[in-house]
Each structure stands twice: as C-alpha cells, then as structure tokens.
Task: structure prediction
Amino acid sequence: NAGVTQTPKFQVLKTGQSMTLQCAQDMNHEYMSWYRQDPGMGLRLIHYSVGAGITDQGEVPNGYNVSRSTTEDFPLRLLSAAPSQTSVYFCASSYSGRNEQYFGPGTRLTVT
Amino acid sequence: KNEVEQSPQNLTAQEGEFITINCSYSVGISALHWLQQHPGGGIVSLFMLSSGKKKHGRLIATINIQEKHSSLHITASHPRDSAVYICAVRPYSGAGSYQLTFGKGTKLSVIP
Result:
C-alpha cells in the first residue's frame, strides 16, 4: 500500500493564481481531511469528508474548495491564491473520523 | 472554545534520559491522539487513547479524563527520538466530533 500520497511536494504561486493540491489514499478509508500547518500554530482543519459525495468545512475553509467524487481522492483547490495561504498542507485519512489518522507527506506552498 | 496546551514547548535531553511531555485540554473529549513529526516534516500517529494507558516499545501514553490531562513518556531516550510531538483531541460529541484540535507541539532534541 502507498498509504496517503500528495502532489506536488513543493509549489510556488503568484497572487491570484489558482491550483489544485492532490491527495489520494489506497486504504479504502471513508474519512479524509485537509490541514494547514503554520509556524507557531497547531495544525488547523480546512475541509473534511466522511465519504464520497460528502464534504464539510473545518476551522479555516475560506479561499479553499474541495470535492470527493471517489473514495480514493480528495483534491483541495485554491481559487485565487493569496500570500496568507503560504503554508504546509497535509492531507490525512482514517477508516472513520474516529480512528487513527494517516498523514500524507505534505505540500509546501509559497504564494508571492 | 476547545484549547489544547502542551508543555514544554522545547525540550533538550541527554541520550538515555526519561522524558515527559504534557498535554492539557479544556473540553470533554472522546479521544486524544499523540503524533510525531519528523525533522523532514512527515507526521506519524503514535497513540490514540480515551482512557488509561498505552505502551509501544519505549513510548508510554497516559490520560486522566477527569483532570483533562495526558502525558507522553519516552524511556531511554535516543537521538532518533528527536522530533516534534503533537497532542490532538477530539471533542466528545456534536458537529465537531470529527474535528481534531491540535496543540502547537513540543520540540524534542536528544543529544548523544
């Protein structure tokens, strides 16, 4: 099993550009989530999904969009990138939202 | 608001020392997670617990639900234990029951 994979590992965007961060898991997990990690702060939940076709907002959803068309994939879209979205983004999955979470390797995003 | 406080923020230890990292939280929870973030950035789940104590190798995690407090102990510490250790809690119930609240992490450095 590859576990949770994320692409790209690094990305630099200009303000106003859009892009999609990819996340995939091969463990047949129902629950998937996106977090951002900023210096001096704990991980914060952006969006999550409890199954294909079901998504919900987390603590910091503004400026991000998600969809879940398959169990395996949970892409995160930045609609119009802003410098405040410079961060490290982690995707995670678990069997249900109440189990051990498996994290992807992270995507380091810089918005100039 | 659910808050998670970890102490200490930074910890330096000599190889072989017994290490304790503390986590306190402010609301009733259904589970507490301990995570390890390697210097390269990857995040690994160490424990998920809702009561009592769990042990894995040289790592021991305890939780006191009444006092809203958990500790992570490392026995016979080794330089490879150097990492950031993160505590996260899941609220007891309600709309936020899928959402984890994370502490800011404790950075551990073990010197040979």
Q: What stands out?
A: Chain A has no helices and eleven strands.
